[in-house]
Amino acid sequence: MAGTHSRYATDRGLTTRMVTTMFLIGLLYVVLVGVLLAVLRGAWPIILVITGGMFVAQFWFSDRIAAFSMGAREVSPAEAPELHGAIDRICALADMPKPRVAIAESDVPNAFATGRSRKSSLVCATTGLLRRLEPEELEGVLAHEMSHVAHRDVAVMTIASFLGVLAGIITRVALWGGFARNSRGNDPIGVLVLLIPLVSAVVYALSFLLTRLLSRYRELTADRTAALLTGRPSALASALTKVSGQMARIPTEDLRKAEPYNAFYFVPAFASKESIGRLLSTHPTLEQRLDQLARISADLSRP
Question: Is 95 left (phi over 0), alpha (psi -120 to 50) or beta?
Fold first, then answer.
């Protein structure tokens, strides 16, 4: 997909996984609407309005919600000249339009990209990352994030993750707000409200699995294509090692705040080494990523 519009190397395996994920998201909507219509036949206008609203919000506002949730603040070239300069160089190398550039005030060293399309894409680095990396390392990380934009997998991840985030919010509102306790079960609205926690939990679980279907593979693809584009796999490997090592020094509270957005980040944030998130990680292991970069470095050094 990326090869016809940029100089990032194409990856058919990534394209296949993206198409599969989007198909399953559509299927999830069809099943969700079908189940609700079967259970609540008299409330079909309400169901169509709610699911239609979710669909529109998912495709038009998911990127803004994701960026806002992670604290991204768009910055001008005057505010962040080094960050803009690095992205300008990558755009020139890749022959692709420049995304919006943002900074997130966080000591957790990381970066991420969001957006439904290249025109609406945003690349963000945290203040913790900007403080810790050398210019070549930062450029490697940003080339990785720009690869997500070029291959459009960031759009798929943004949309796929939205269902899970929304389902989690709905579940918390329904349970903490006491809607289920205060609703009557003898009318369509009451039954619909009583079903919200169950339906939201199922949607969250399925969305979780959908993002994992794509996530680990897309990270390896982004590492590989970024290393090939810049010609400096060692710089990206150095950034990976440095950022992963620094995670252990970040306060647990900050890591816990970042954990829900691991699917977007350059390196996942974990509050503890025993976290269940490591078993169901959004990313390949550090060893896998470094091994791939070492092989690329060896290939590039051959005559």
Answer: left
